[in-house]
Write a structure and sequence with these properties.
The chain has a domain of 149 residues: YVTN repeat-like/Quinoprotein amine dehydrogenase (Methylamine Dehydrogenase, Chain H), CATH 2.130.10. By secondary structure, it is mainly β. 0% of the residues lie in helices and 52% in strands.
């Protein structure tokens, strides 16, 4: 705990949930610019690609100790008439490795989850967004929305095997080993796609009805064939084991991007950056969502990652300047 720079309690609870903020090292006046974070059950740690700092922060979920993987490239760019610094932004786990996506140099790099040693890197022709490991084919699938594509890499060598192109921006990712599919959204067309893992062909297209902002993050309840899909202000369930119909939806407040899901508890977690709240919902066996908790967080907190104890880490993004994670703890984990 000595390595935690600041732990500031927000004095907010919801149904005996508590929240506090965790300040990451190396922050700046412009914030850290976080995006995707993820929990690694093999090491019981939360991985935070920490953008501007050129590092990935690895937080032990039990002790709170922070270790760092440093040396990632950063780059200053002008976006929407303002300067931004880009760096590590996404992480995925599989095959005994962690895969880090870096917008600073458009690379994917391998890191050992046990030793945190950096391995080989592969520079892509376009900036990476989401990353997913596909165990069936031993591949890493990377969405690159700026050129409307998904790059498929060999997990061992990181060599680019093929590129899939679309008529819009791929956003979100989920791997369905049972049905041999990869799911993504075409965000600017308000569509959700199912892609066959081996033929690479799009085998189904669904219309989630998210509206102008389109669908964002997705997670899968694989045994039941339910795809949890984030619209900007609601969470939906699609029947991907059937005809792709919308089975249910709940309001989350505005500003949802990526989401998380715990299959053992059947709980979904959606952080709304603009509404400054976390919605926790239970998914039943027929695909209906029921809200079980609404937890006040902070403006900008989104992209939830949940640990095996149900503790939720939410990085700041969406244009909000911050060096903090919001950490929401359920009653059972106190």
């Amino acid at each position: 705990m000595r390595l935690l720079a600041l732990v500031l309690f927000l004095m907010s609870t919801a149904g005996n949930w508590s929240t506090h903020t965790l300040t990451l090292p190396g922050g700046t006046a412009a914030g850290i610019a976080m995006d995707y974070v993820a929990f690694d059950p093999a090491t019981n740690s939360v991985w935070v690609p920490a953008g501007i700092t050129g590092a990935v922060d690895v937080i032990d979920a039990k002790s709170g100790r922070i270790r760092r993987v440093t040396g990632f490239a950063t780059k200053e760019v002008v976006m929407r008439d303002r300067k931004r610094t880009l760096g590590p932004s996404a992480v995925a786990f599989g095959g005994g490795s962690a895969f880090i996506g870096n917008r600073g140099d458009s690379s994917i790099c391998v890191v050992s989850p046990k030793t945190l040693a950096r391995g080989r890197c592969q520079v892509l022709p376009s900036m990476p967004d989401g990353i997913a490991y596909v165990a069936e084919t031993k591949e890493v699938w990377v969405t690159t929305p700026r050129d409307n594509a998904i790059r498929i890499l060999d997990a061992a060598t990181l060599a680019i095997k093929t590129t899939l192109t679309f008529d819009g921006n791929p956003e979100g990712f989920a791997v369905d080993a049972l049905r041999h599919r990869f799911y993504t959204n075409i965000e600017d067309k308000d569509r959700t796609l199912a892609i066959d893992l081996k033929s690479r062909k799009t085998v189904a297209t669904w219309n989630p009805g998210c509206g102008e902002d389109g669908p964002h993050g997705i997670r899968l309840d694989e045994p039941r064939g339910r795809l949890l899909l984030a619209c900007s202000a609601k969470l939906e369930v699609l029947d991907v084991g059937g005809n792709g119909a919308v089975l249910s939806s709940i309001d989350t407040g505005d500003g949802v991007d990526d989401i998380d899901y715990a299959p053992t508890s059947q709980l979904a977690y959606a952080g709304a950056a603009k509404a400054a709240k976390l919605t926790v919902a239970r998914l039943d066996d027929i695909g209906h969502l029921t809200v079980v908790a609404t937890v006040p967080t902070a403006a900008g907190a989104r992209n939830a990652a949940v640990t095996r104890d149900g503790v939720v880490y939410l990085p700041h993004g969406g244009g909000v300047t911050s060096n903090d994670l919001v950490v929401a703890t359920p009653p059972a984990a106190h």
